[in-house]
Automatic annotation (TrEMBL):
InterPro entries to which the protein is assigned, alphabetical: MetI-like, MetI-like_sf
UniProt keyword annotations, A-Z: Cell inner membrane, Cell membrane, Membrane, Transmembrane, Transmembrane helix, Transport
GO cellular component: plasma membrane
Protein name stated in the entry: Inner membrane ABC transporter permease protein YejB
Predominant cellular place of this UniProt entry's protein: membrane
Main function: Probably part of a binding-protein-dependent transport system. Probably responsible for the translocation of the substrate across the membrane.
GO biological process: microcin transport; transmembrane transport
Superkingdom to which the source organism belongs: Bacteria
Segments traversing the membrane: 9-30, 134-155, 167-192, 223-246, 281-308, 328-354
Membrane topology: Multi-pass membrane protein
Localization terms from the record: Cell inner membrane; Cell membrane
Residue stretches making up the ABC transmembrane type-1 domain: 132-347
């Protein structure tokens, strides 16, 4: 198993390289790069100089190796002095040749140096660190609740297959699956955040303004108070898939010969179900854990972050895309990909913990 894990860890390197490289060259053909954004801001009178006061790329690293530079005229730059355009291009670091920017990006990313944001006046790592607690909170709590509810419910539905409980529980989870998370979030906001009904929960942020002055138990309570509604809105549609997967996995296993033999020997039904069937049925469920966590961690929480004013990684990456803030775009992409690859490795380890008969090393 050690050799297998070592190979998987080594495989992370070329995978990261391929994803970053492909996206690097795709961005080259995308219009409206950061230099265009800076020129547009100057011409519209929104800035007396460069966005971020030119601080974003003062170390020469802020461009993350990308941008539409070339020799062509920038959009909207006809009314500006060519020397101003040249200075903007140089400050953002886009005066360098394409290959030089590419290899500079690879070298810095290998050292986890993602440079500075072009428009927010802070390093990419600072922005990620400030946004990470929100995304981790939403992703971790949502995934944990979904698994804690869906697995026991799926097992119960398998045991009571065809009963009234199976029918009405399926109806409820399918309705929940059909309700968009943002619509459920709106309902929660209207009913529980001080609208025309109840004022039970806060509408904005992950903590209160006086969070630092609270005792430790007050901090826990305040945190849970703020995270309740965003988590509920995130998990509403997440139960159906995992519950039905668990149910079908158990139904498939209980019909196998080893279960029939165990029952014929007079073994207790709970021992058969949780000692033998559970180990085999959970393999498919565990296989879906990385995808479930990643969807909750990144893509699934974007609208929730917007609606509850939570500054997480999803919102950070979305804003960076709109602003063409390439260092933030590529930095978050790099981190997202790395976390996803590591979660897949953790999933393989969990396989062997659930069923020691699985030997990845022997398959090589």
């Amino acid at each position: 198993m050690t050799a297998y894990l070592l190979r998987r860890l080594l495989l992370v390197i070329p995978t990261l390289w391929a994803i970053i490289t492909i996206n690097f060259f795709i961005v080259q053909i995308a219009p409206g790069g950061p230099v265009d954004q800076a020129i547009a801001a100057i011409e519209m009178g929104q800035s007396s100089g460069l966005p971020g006061g030119g601080q974003a790329s003062g170390n020469g690293h802020a461009n993350a190796g990308v941008g539409m530079v070339g020799d062509s005229q920038y959009r909207g730059a006809r009314g500006l002095d060519p020397e101003v355009i040249a200075e903007i291009t140089k400050r953002f670091g886009f005066d360098k040749p394409l290959h030089e920017r590419y290899f500079d990006m690879l070298w810095r990313y290998a050292r986890f140096d993602f440079g500075d944001s072009l428009f927010q006046g802070a390093s990419v790592m600072q922005l990620v660190k400030s946004s990470l607690p929100v995304s981790v909170s939403l992703g971790l709590w949502s995934t944990l609740i979904i698994y804690l509810v869906s697995i026991p419910l799926g097992i119960r539905k398998a045991v009571k297959n065809g009963s009234a409980f199976d029918t009405w529980s399926s109806t409820i989870i399918i309705i929940g699956y059909a309700v968009p998370s943002f619509l459920f979030a709106i309902l929660l906001i209207v009913f529980f955040t001080g609208g025309n009904y109840y004022d039970w929960f806060p509408l904005r942020g992950l903590t209160s303004a006086n969070f630092d002055t609270l005792p430790w138990y007050g901090k826990i309570t305040d945190y849970l108070w703020h995270i309740t509604l965003p988590v509920l809105a995130t998990v509403i549609g997440g139960f159906a898939t995992l519950t039905m997967l668990t149910k079908n996995s158990f139904l498939d296993e209980v019909q196998k010969q080893y279960v029939v033999t165990a029952r014929a020997k007079g073994l207790d039904e709970n021992k058969i179900l949780y000692r033998h069937v559970f180990r085999n049925a959970m393999l498919l469920v565990i296989a879906g854990f990385p995808a479930t966590f990643i969807s909750m961690f990144f893509t699934g929480s974007l609208l929730i972050e917007v609606m509850f004013s939570l500054h997480g990684l999803g919102l950070l990456g979305y804003d960076a895309t709109l602003q063409r803030d390439f260092p933030v775009m590529f930095g978050t992409l790099y981190i997202f990909t790395l976390i996803g690859l590591l979660l897949n490795i953790i999933s393989d380890i969990t396989y062997t913990l659930v069923d020691p008969r699985i030997d990845f090393e022997g398959r090589q």
